[in-house]
Amino acid sequence: MALELKSLVKRFGAVKAVDDVSLTVGDGAFFSLLGPSGCGKTTLLRTIAGILQPDSGTIALDGRDITAVPVHARNAALVFQSYALFPHLTVFENVAFGLRMRREKEAAIRTRVGEALDLVRLAGFGERYPGQISGGQQQRVALARALVVRPALLLLDEPLSNLDARLREEMRTEIRRIQRAVGITTILVTHDIQEAFALSDRIAVMNHGRTEQIGAPADIYLRPATRFVAEFAGQVNHFAVTVERVEAAQATVATAGGHRFRIALGEARPAPGSELHVMLRPERVRVGAADCDNRFAAEIEDVTYLGGLTVYRLRLGRDRLLAQAQNLGAAALAVGDAVDIGWQAEDGVCLAGA
Ligand SMILES: Nc1ncnc2c1ncn2[C@@H]1O[C@H](COP(=O)(O)OP(=O)(O)O)[C@@H](O)[C@H]1O
Ligand SMILES: [Mg+2]
Fold this sequence. Notes:
Layout: E1 3-12, E2 15-25, E3 30-34, H1 41-49, E4 56-61, E5 64-65, E6 76-79, H2 91-101, H3 106-119, H4 135-147, E7 153-157, H5 165-182, E8 185-190, H6 193-199, E9 202-207, E10 210-215, H7 217-222, H8 227-232, E11 237-247, E12 250-255, E13 260-264, E14 275-280, E15 286-287, E16 294-305, E17 309-316, E18 319-326, E19 338-343, E20 349-350
Helix pairs in contact: 2-3, 2-4, 3-4
The protein binds adenosine-5'-diphosphate (ADP) and magnesium ion.
């Protein structure tokens, strides 16, 4: 079902944990609330679940206002970071729990628990206890338990944070597969940008209780609305620049360090003399480049080898720049080497709200 939040506010004393949040999640979509610790993600998710009552604003599910509907009648299933399985109940009984609470018939319980365990690939694990299965399997039991009651909304609060890096990636793929198979509208809370990118149709980036930007993963990465979003979404070079000339759809800008480069302009036509904030992702900087709109002589200040990639810190006179290059077998560059670098006019992105 589609979810619509309008101007939601939730305060804890003087703290506005959720500050005027409006967003919509389409039916069957996977939506993430992404942001640093303390930005209000969990509070927003709990407000959607009905565990917390907002101070103002409305929540609608498929057009019906559910703001005042109590938690048990809201039909939203919440999965936490700590799976909160009952240790003294078998996997089967853990998954059956919600159905028993609803006094479903035994035969229906057998069928639906069986289907839920199949869905999370745990058929055959029903008689085990939570202590006898791995962390990833426990997480899948928690998912099966949430989904078995056929909720309208699946709410996931950092569900993968307790897993090690490899298992986390595996479970990421599993969650996406399960969500698509069931077609359930899902909201994930995470502080992990890769997780949000890998899973989401759309993402809301939150900061201090507010949504700074809502968009598809590529919007967030390539066209961040603010400096905060740009930095949260990955490594980035920032330039505070002054516009020198505007010609057609390009402008020539200058850094305080005296470097001039060209940027592509969208709709905006900034006036000469005005100041802009331009960001440039490190992978757009071509190290050893010959044919770019913007070319500079640089010196390598630092080299970080990352296997498939190398990150270079470059010095251009008084300006500094991060570059990231794929390791394609060319000779490695070392600290102190002089290199030609460059990037295309379209690679520099103006941040309107910075
Ligand atoms: N029950 C509570 N009582 C008082 N303050 C709270 C409570 N829960 C959360 N907060 C505060 O609200 C803000 C948002 O917290 P939270 O929603 O948990 O953030 P996140 O999940 O993004 O880490 C923080 O400043 C936190 O300290
Ligand atoms: Mg949280």
